[in-house]
Amino acid sequence: MSFQTRYDSKHRVVKMLLYGEATYENRMEAVRQLVAKYGHLKPLRVLADVRRITKMSMTHDEQQRYGTYLGQLEALKGARVAILNTAQLNTTAVMRNHARDGGLELHSFLTEAEAMSWLTSSAEVPS
To answer: What is the mean pLDDT of residues 12-39?
Structure first.
């Protein structure tokens, strides 16, 4: 899996594009870079687009560990994270559950417009 991050200053949202094969190592590297570059933003708002991931190569255990790691990251406390998924390949379900256990809610969306609307609103949960 490769990834790109960029800051949308108009909406104050960090946009991450993740594509290719998803492995534990490259997902960890993506979140490390996200936190290093943008972890200082308060509130941190992230739009993670995983619709171009073509293969999930993380074991169930790795997905659990990654989700737990996300939930425990201090830089992500209070962050608002929207995940763009496809209906055909949901690459984040296990991770979302474990991140939630640590206090980080990751909300899934099928369209960027819905995700951006939620990220830039004051709504607590997506409608």
So the answer is: 95
